[in-house]
Specification:
It is a single chain. The chain has 13 helices and 13 strands. By secondary structure, it is an alpha+beta fold. It folds into 3 domains: about 100 residues; about 70 residues, Dna Ligase, domain 1 (2-Layer Sandwich), CATH 3.30.1490; about 140 residues, D-amino Acid Aminotransferase, Chain A, domain 1. Strand 8 and strand 9 form a beta hairpin. Helix 4 runs antiparallel to helix 5. The protein starts with a strand and ends with a helix. The structure holds adenosine-5'-diphosphate and magnesium ion (MG).
Length: about 350
Amino acid sequence: MKKLRVLVLVHDVLLPPPDAEELGPDDTYLYQMELDVKSTLTELGHEVKVLGVDDDLVPVKTAIGSFKPHIVFNIITDFHDVTTYEAHFVSYLELLKQPYTGCNPRGMVLAGDKGISKKILRHEGIPTPDFHVVPLRKRLSKLPPGMNYPVIVKAATKHGSAGLSQASVVKTDKQLQRRVDYMHRSQKDDVVIEEYIEGRELTVAVVGNDRLEVFPVWEVWYTKLPKGARPIADARVKWNVEYAHGIGIKTGRARRLPEAKEQEIHAVARRAYRALDLSGYARVDLRMDPDGNIFVIEVNTNADLTAVEDFSEAAEHAGYDYGELLELVMRAGLAYKPAWQRV
Ligand SMILES: Nc1ncnc2c1ncn2[C@@H]1O[C@H](COP(=O)(O)OP(=O)(O)O)[C@@H](O)[C@H]1O
Ligand SMILES: [Mg+2]
């Protein structure tokens, strides 16, 4: 790939310090992806600038004006602490006519709301568990007709398993009502209740705009789960390294998955990506029940691209080393045609 000027936009609190490359993973894990992207693009010979973004857009505009990046590598996942504003941030880049990596704003809005995205998936006939949306100011006293316990109670627009714990999976109307109230209060967000799918936890990494590249199916295993606990990637699993280690979390290439099933999962992932109008790259999370039925759980735009995380490892399995993956992502960003280029 030709050498590019790349402006990496990160949250100011996740700006790697100047000596970050000399530090060990225990010190750098909070900003590992930011560091991996910066150091790898630099090693590849690109001219890289990293800007920490807080609550002010002026420095973003100034940096774009002076550095004139061929592409912004966008690692901003919220703004003013609001998750859904990540899409508005991309809108701002687009209004500046600045090419960027990752998803377009409309796709981000659609995929970023579990209620809206599931309505679209349902409409398109893409398998997803039965669900019901409870808006922030409504209450729910019993399970809607046609749905079956157990159900899992989630915040519509939050990432990173916010508010999710073992208590999120409920089996009675009383538990359901309590958990919905709790999620409304603690997350200040609409709530999605969804039938709980017992089974394997799978993910598919996807890159592209029109032509999509899908990587081998990845699996999450809970190898030392205490008796009675459910295998769910709740907040402790995602954010408490010791706890995750304790319940034996492992990820890797899905095992004993017949070729035809892998193809079916890939087809579902592509359909979900297209139905939500995504671009750039995303990770599709799925579950497969014991009968082999596939369900899309959610689609994560601008998924984690840390060098040793699932997305990058799946790409490596498909023959893309980490640098090649980042360049693939930048190529998708450069190739994406936003509306202003189509008028
Ligand atoms: N319908 C479901 N059936 C079984 N497990 C689920 C379901 N929905 C979510 N989970 C579990 O909860 C985790 C987090 O839910 P997810 O919808 O992916 O939200 P987040 O955006 O917080 O990652 C999933 O990785 C999975 O382990
Ligand atoms: Mg998820």
